[in-house]
Write a structure and sequence with these properties.
Blueprint (H helix, E strand, L loop, with lengths): L24 H12 L4 H4 L8 H4 L11 H9 L3 H7 L12 H5 L6 H14 L3 H7 L3 H10 L27 H4 L11 H4 L4 H13 L2 H8 L1 H28 L1
Helix pairs in contact: 1-5, 4-7, 9-14, 12-14, 13-14
Length: about 250
């Protein structure tokens, strides 16, 4: 299905009760174009009967001002102001469980569409994206610098005190349980974060070529600078190691 051949755009775009658009029309169109041009868009949006099955089965809809049906309707009707407004808060309530995709009679995936909208929010440096991702700076630092951000021995009351009393449910005899797991690595922070130098450089190259670092810079410049310093240091170490190998030959 081609979205460029025909349009479902409404005669009035935006909130009918607002005097003005939230952003200039050109900017709203740019944001929507980025969403619509994603290769996944046509696979995730096939139509909408407005039946509400997605919202009825959505866990997040029971606790937040959030409706997968609303997201699909905004995109299907190309309500540019409504799309931008939803990207300020509502899209971040989705748990990405994809129950909506499993139940939709049209084969839509509101969760998939929301993922595209989240990535677009990051690309455009929206404040909502910055606010949501800021608490995860430590996670992103470990993920980008090591390829891993969590190891089993971190699941304990000391590391996750903010989980409250329920953390006791996962405070199990992990060493004993892990004997049933054949893989000897990634069980502790020491091994999970110990990454081969060449692998590190390859990871950094992937983050750069895929645009991950560019997006990171738009949402957290300080974290971007820290990761850039780590990457430069690792690359220098890798070049030094290669020079040493050449000298030995």
């Amino acid at each position: 299905m081609s979205h460029s051949a025909s349009t479902r755009v409404q005669e009035f775009i935006g909130d009918p009760f607002a005097d003005e658009s939230l952003l200039p029309q050109e900017k709203l169109e740019e944001i929507f174009t980025d969403i619509q041009s994603d290769m996944r868009f046509d696979h995730e949006l096939n139509g909408c009967l407005n039946c509400g099955i997605c919202t009825a089965t959505c866990p997040a809809a029971h606790y937040y001002d959030f409706s997968p049906r609303e997201i699909v309707q905004l995109l299907w009707t190309e309500n540019l102001d409504g799309i931008y407004d939803a990207m300020q808060e509502k899209i971040w309530a989705c748990a990405q469980c994809y129950t909506c995709a499993a139940r939709c009679p049209f084969g839509n995936s509101p969760g998939g569409l929301i993922m595209i909208m989240r990535e677009t929010a990051i690309k455009h440096g929206m404040e909502s994206a910055k606010n949501v991702l800021r608490p995860f700076s430590r996670v992103m630092l470990k993920l980008i610098s090591t390829g891993n951000q969590l190891s089993p021995d971190m699941i304990n009351p000391e590391h996750f005190a903010d989980w409250g009393p329920n953390i006791s449910k996962v405070d199990a005899p992990l060493k004993l349980l892990r004997k049933a797991i054949p893989m000897p690595t990634l069980n502790t922070t020491e091994t999970a974060w110990e990454v081969n130098l060449k692998t590190s450089v390859e990871l950094y190259t992937i983050w750069e070529e895929t645009g991950v670092l560019d997006q990171l810079e738009t949402v957290d410049e300080n974290l971007f600078d820290v990761i850039l310093d780590i990457m430069d240091e690792k690359r220098e170490d890798w070049e030094d190691w290669q020079d040493e190998q050449d000298d030995d030959d």
